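call fold target=Pyridoxal phosphate homeostasis protein
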Amino acid sequence: MGIAERYQKVAAEVAEVTVAAGRAPEDVLLVAVSKTVGPDGVAAALEGGTRDFGENRPDQIVPKSQAFPEARWHFIGNIQSRRIPEIVAASSLIHSLYQLRHAEKIERAAAELGKVQDVLIEVNVSGEESKSGVAPADAAALVKACAALPHVRVRGLMTMAPAGDRAAARSAFAGLAALADEIRAELPEAEAVAFTELSMGMSDDWREAIPLGATIVRVGRAIFSESYQE
């Protein structure tokens, strides 16, 4: 089974799980995390129907977005301050914003490009020291501070769950969904309407994320790795 076929298999499974959760298939976006493959792998995924790709390094998202402008490119990695102009130029959605100083640099970069940059606020729901993200208690203040920036649009929240523990993953995803509801209730109507996205769930735990409200799942190995097994 090649990349195109694996993508189609995962996409079909995502749709099935979404429908089983009482939602429409189009309610969940599958982002193919292509950080482990080169242009040939991206091309194969495109042939399979992929339109949204995730990258975690500027050195990868910049050339790939230039080579495949027909795709939508998501930045999902740690934000390096000095690379923000490149990230903004390449990204349709930045998933991993959790510092106001980075938001302010995104604002300046987006203004120079004449665009409004969609972002998600990364929240460290599990509290693991190894994971990035704002603490849940500080998330609402960061969302509101970012909302004051005219070239930054906060679309929702993102988190990474503890690896290898499905119960802990479900707890993290439920916590992010509840936090998003709390924040949305505090936002002005115009901002609340745009605050709809929950990016949560990866190759090993997206099935736990969708019933708990995920609108974006980020899947890499299950699509791009021949050796991946659940």
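return ok
The beta strands are 29-33, 52-55, 72-75, 93-97, 117-122, 152-158, 197-199, 216-219. Residues 3-224 form a domain with the TIM Barrel fold (CATH 3.20.20.10).
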